[in-house]
Amino acid sequence: MLPVDSHAHLYDAMYAGQTENVISSALGRVGFIICPSEDRKTSEQSVQIASGESRIFAAVGIHPLHTEHVSGEDWKQILSLAHHSPKVVALGETGLDFFSKNCDRELQKYWFSRHIQAAGELHLPLIIHDRKAHGEILSLLQKQAHGVVSGVIHGYSGSLETAKALINTGFYISFGGSITYPGSRRIRQVASTLPLDRILIETDSPYQAPFEKHGELNVPENVWYVAQALAKLKQMPVSEVIETTGHNAAKLFGISRN
Ligand SMILES: [Zn+2]
């Protein structure tokens, strides 16, 4: 069984000239890949990449840091892709980023809320970006999504308490390269405690390279390092981590694994 990378930006300009190599190398070592988007243009790119490859799937949406220049026409096009392309398995990445001081928080909340509503209407899960906005995201999901929409908080960096509340609201928690760093004690503690049947793994390629590949361009097959780190933290065989997190991703995104 091969691990699933639930978050890789395959269209990213950092892969310029080597996208095909990155993808073909990755597909030899991972089961499937979810490619989330940041705006209209990258949503179109994700769908295009996914359309050409049976084991790549797309999520379409507007990243919280890209909410300032979205037009009604952009949103219409994103929803149309979600509605018409069989390779779109989620909306995202959406969410809130309160780390950046430059992007209006009310506008971010407005668009996050629209994604939650659209996910309910389209029966799709959400891929959520959460940076320094843990409490705000939890309360919006509790209000709008509980019992209606599921999804995943990607690259999780919040507390154990918030993670448990997110799980109770019907969401999964995804861990990436950060759990491979011995110094990331707090997040490693959270990962070791949460139930494996609510965990996804990811790379967030081309960003967030794992400890073993620090300073390099991150690629989807590095999800193996994340799986190994999680197995070590949970003191279980890596095969079990790969099997269960892969099963979780397949279930959340409605993908059949053969
Ligand atoms: Zn991302």
TrEMBL record:
It comes from the Bacteria. Keywords: Hydrolase, Metal-binding. InterPro entries: DNase_TatD-rel_CS, Metal_Hydrolase, TatD-like, TatD/YcfH-like. Gene3D superfamilies: Metal-dependent hydrolases. GO terms for cellular component: cytosol. A divalent metal cation 2 binds at residues 129, 154. SUPFAM superfamilies: Metallo-dependent hydrolases. It comes from Allisonella histaminiformans. One of its GO terms (molecular function) is metal ion binding. A divalent metal cation 1 binds at residues 7, 9, 93, 204. This is TatD DNase family protein. Pfam families: TatD_DNase (PF01026). The keyword Metal-binding applies.
